[in-house]
Amino acid sequence: MKPLKLTINAFGPYAKPQEIDFTKMDSIYLITGPTGAGKTTIFDAISFALFGETSGSDREQKDLKSDFADGGEVTFVELEFLLHGEIYTIRREPTQTMKGRKTKRNHAVELHLPNEKLLNKVHEVQEKIEELLGLNVEQFRQIVMLPQGEFKKLIESSTEEKERIFRKIFSSKIYKDFQDKLKDKSILMRRELEKYRDRRITLLQKIESGDNLKLKSLVESENMNIQEILLEVKEILEEDKKTLKKLEDDKINKTKEIEDKLKRIEKYKELNNKIQRISDLKLSLESLLSKEEEILSYEKKSLMAKKANEAKLLEENLIGAKNFATRKLEEKLLAQSLIEEKEKTLRDLSKELTLQESKEDERKSLEKKLHSLESQVNVFKEYEEKSYRLQEEEKILKTIEDSLRENYKLKQEKEVNLVDIESFLNENKCVEVDILSLEGKVKEKKEDLNLLRDFYKKIEVLKMNIEKKEELSKEYSIISSNYLKKNNYYEEKSEEIKLESAGILAKALVEGEPCLVCGSIHHPNKARVSASTLSEKELKVLKDDLEKVKANKEELLKSVTAVKVKIDEMLKGVILEGFKKFLGVDDFSIEEIDILQGDITNKGGAIRSELEKDEKELADKNLLLKAKSLKVSDREKILLSIQDVDREIKSLEIKNREVFAKCETLRESKKSLEKSINGEVSSLKELEILIQNTKKSISAMEESLRRIREVERKATIELTSAIKNLENKLEELKEAEIQVKSREEIFYDKLNSLGFTYEVFKESLLDSKDIDVIDNNIKEYRDELLTSREQIKVLEEETLGKEKIDTEEFENEKSILQEKLKEIENEEKIVYSRCDNNSKIVKMVEELSSGIGSKEEKYSIISELSNIANGFNPKKITFERYVLAHHFGEILEAANIRFKAMTNERYYLERKVDITDARKSQGLDFDVYDNYTGKTRSIKSLSGGESFKASLALALGLSDVIGASSGGVRIDTMFIDEGFGTLDPESLEKAIETLLELGAVGKVVGVISHVSELSERIMSRIEVSKDKKGSNIATCES
Fold it and tell me: Where are the alpha helices (DSSP H) in 103-220?
């Protein structure tokens, strides 16, 4: 990715639109300018355009809008960049508050793709940018853009963090996916294997061990021996099969014995039952014979009932004839009563008809009145219609008059409000000028206050240096005094040694050996050394100690001198300038520093008080300005409203005149109609009710006459019909009486022929069902009597000469045999169930064991592969990390080319191969090897300058390797913010040479730095300047 053009507006310290055309810059360019001017903001703008976040992790969207810009100006960043030979343009606006709007303007973004497609959803653009660059914002900060204070993040990042960065760069997700697939397959196979093992254990736990304690112990053991259990079970199965065969034979024998016993018992029971049956039948026969006379009486009763039933139908016919004659008599009497009732009704109707016919004159009078009333209806309708219209118009008139009064009142209120607004606007007509003046004062005072704070801190630094100088001076006095004492002591002892040199030489004389001075071999009077005199060795120790003290004294003197020089520079420079600027003091002594610092504090307090007062006044003025703006708007609204009210009043006055005229016309029409209205009623409704009542009266009279005539006609017809009906009933009664007499003669003739009197006939009568019951009982009695005699005869022949046999002993023997058979069957069921259960379990366990063995072999292979691939190995390295470690080695190799050059071959980076913490992932960590010490140490132990060089070398090495790889990420650009200030001159020169080499191979590098050497070597520059209105950008092309 190479930036082509950057446009920023109202962003950070840049109030006005700024544009940087990177195509006109060299491949290496420098961004310079004073502190706080906005150099880093250029990197922030590039990072924000791409990812919606700044280059540093401590700046948020809400802080991006320029404080120098007008509140209505939209803050945005637009970046045009080249990637894979195609041009992309992205424009992004942060969340911001706009002047005059209550709601915030939301974060917005537009990405124009080479195919002219536009993406404008934040998450959609974010995904696309990360897809195009192959990096997220954190990775971008660590690889492409090294922000101020964050350049060490990549070199100090963990293996996992590097893995996430390299995964996208080197397209290693395929290896991660392979790891995951192996892991998932291993887990799946392990679960399946465990399921099979659990199933096998469950089956083994269901084995029935019976009385076999060994098998029971094996099954209940925590660590089951499958093969041993199976062998033991198979032995039990063989024993159980033998037992089953023996039990089957026992069961057959016992069953045969029981069957023999049952046959004998059944034979004896049958004989006993026959003997008992003969006895029972004889008792039953005696009982039947005792009922003979009763049966004879029933036979007689049945015969009499059957004869009586022959005459019963004739009696019923007679009774029916008598009932019919009685009904005909009742009908005749009813017909006579009806004739009398109809004759009376007809007489009453004749009287009523005469009365109604006498009201004819009254009815004609009502018809005449009705005609007169109907002629008044139209007059009343017109009168009421005029009255209603007059009421409605009067209501409208009242509404118009009320509206007029309200509008007059409303106009008056608005005119009063307008006067108040004009008065307020006149009073505050200069508020804008006051605000501008106050804003200038506030800004000026804030700047003064900030300058005072900075100066106050410099005074504190001066005081610290003065205190440090005093401490160092005291320490120097002590060391100087100590040195003087030690020096005097040393010189004293040195002089003693010179004076005692003869004694020292005499110490070395040996009798018989020549003296080095005189050559004599005899030494009768040797010179002696004083006891307090030191040896040469002791004197050397004193001298070494003296030299150390001297070196410390000289070092301390240098420190004192350096601090004194720093103090003098500050006193003659920034401190003097500050006191002169803020207090007007041209000359002062060190002793006056505290007093002058107090004056600075007081001055700051005074400025702060004035600032607070001005800020409060500015806030009040801003409130007045808002109120003024509202008042101006209100004035316009009120003026428009008064115009609307005037138009409304004029319209209402016209309507008022029109409606008043209508009311007068309707009143005249109403008076004219009142003269022609009949005084009997006062309204149309009363007239209509009177007409309706009159009509009802006429109709009622006509209806009564018609109804009575109709009723009289019907009554005459009904009387004639009743007389005819009576004649018919008399004829029918006569015929019924003849029929009764005829049937009475037939019935009594039949009784005489049967030999019955009427009383005997009634006593002998029975229902046919009762007769059937008697006949059935008689038949059953005769049949039962015959059957009993025959059965007794047969049974006596079969049991002739035989007696009853007691079967209890046989029953007991049978029960004992059955109990033994039951025991055999129960034992057989238990053994068979155990045998069947254990056989099935053995078969299933053997099948499962076979499957488990196969699965264990496969799982062993997959599990081992998964563990190795997922880092469960001595090196704690995953498959993906192993592949990335190869690339990482290439990166370190490329980085070391520059890192060695920048450190004069002292350092080089090497990947860690030993496990330092078994709990953490390994493989992408590295240390630094120091050629001076011959030891490897942690990368975190490097100094600030060394860390910067390592970070720069690693970033460049990463860029080289990525450029040579076939991954989706391409890094053609690098941005470096500061860091060069930590380098010594030699290291700085090496770093500059490295950057210039990058430019030579087509890499684009943007550098922010205050280091003068960079300005001398890098001709292409972006210069940032600042003033009270904000910052500006100018480009300087080579």
Answer: 122-133, 137-143, 153-156, 159-169, 173-205, 213-220
